[in-house]
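1st attempt posting a full record on here, be nice pls
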Amino acid sequence: MLDDKALATIFREARTHNGWLDKPVTDQQLHEIYDLMKWGPTSANCQPARIVFVRTKEGKEKLKPALSAGNTEKTMTAPVTAILAYDSEFFEHLPRMFPHDQTAIHWFKGKPSAEPTAFRNGTLQGAYLIIAARALGLDCGAMSGFDNAKVDAAFFPDGKFKTNFLCNIGYGDHSKVFARSPRFAFDEVCKIV
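the predicted structure (as tokens):
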């Protein structure tokens, strides 16, 4: 079991950041994030997440027109913005990724279940990215508040990948964090049957 300090780092004390310190995130750190997050489970090991780590001035300018007004400054000043997308044709990789059943591709190819499976599991992988980044000492600011179609047109013009959400990554400026919002108690939202 992780100790209390580790649990606090990943969950209890971790915050959604809106401001960033002027401290870079390295290529090595981005590789380390992915090398942790990739181990999180997905159904039939489908791994539909596709990530673009936007760090350059040119990349940020390309992303900027898709951002809502409230997300522009924090995204433009973040050391990295991860575009979390999912591969709508993830099933093409199942013969390699789920070798236990070579018929798995047919569970999804041409089926209505493909899109929700890609979205659901890509979302899970996005959560794993946040946990991995926090575990490695980085802060995150996941967000909606952008035009998916504009991001897709700018970064995924072939239409195969679909944007899910954005996540700023870096070293958060703790002076710009909102006060902690409440959470539901177990009995308000959970049932044991």
